[in-house]
């Protein structure tokens, strides 16, 4: 066959054996926590209290519920405890759909059809989004609530975080998707909605002359949280905040054209090879018109800065509690 347009043979989706295996490799303990279940360790096993004797075998990544005489892997966990169908459970764990069966229709040329942009279907809950962003990524709850209220952040049917980028009229044009489920030894799913226009990044429009630029939407939330937790958020409340979705400057160029009061750019791109090269390219292209400053960090990205900062604060608070207890004991003696 020299070439061809493709058409869907049937409308159903099917999952490959590799996809099913990946879905069943999701850590059940993390999966349970992300769905709001309390998991405790008792002797040599993990249990979920008040769930009819539900235990988790971490070695085999299996679960069993004695009251219902049922159990299995991650897929069965969502089917039984979250009332999902098999298809929905696999889609939720992978944050991806099955493969479409296609047939090729002979033609002299291959036509590429551009996909129309459409936001992922919204879920009727935010619990997985909040659990992931607040507990795992340590984003300040009020920062999350701010973007949720503006309808720039929501949870989709696969329980992933959806970060929305809009044009000046407020019409959604871009969506970054971040999964909330992690596989053993692997990061959560990252991607974009089909048809996304990368000129319109996830952002917070400011009123000042300074624009903070980073790669991922979570870095925007992390940057705000670093100041929020320290009670210093008033220092950046006028700043424009923009996520590029990568290191390319499509979103930056468009944002600067639409917000011409901006005269200063603060670069918070990742501290890695791609981020360093991206910063160099932005300096080269924009330094003639804008005052540009790079934020230097020891960690890889802004979220790692936040997590490290929060752990340091927690450790110091623990030290202070111990010092106070020691002092009070000495006074009693």
UniProtKB/TrEMBL annotation:
It holds the Pfam family Toprim_2. Residues 131-204 form the DUF3991 domain. One of its GO terms (molecular function) is zinc ion binding. One of its GO terms (biological process) is DNA replication. InterPro entries: DNA_primase_Znf_CHC2 (IPR036977), DUF3991 (IPR025054). This is Toprim-like.
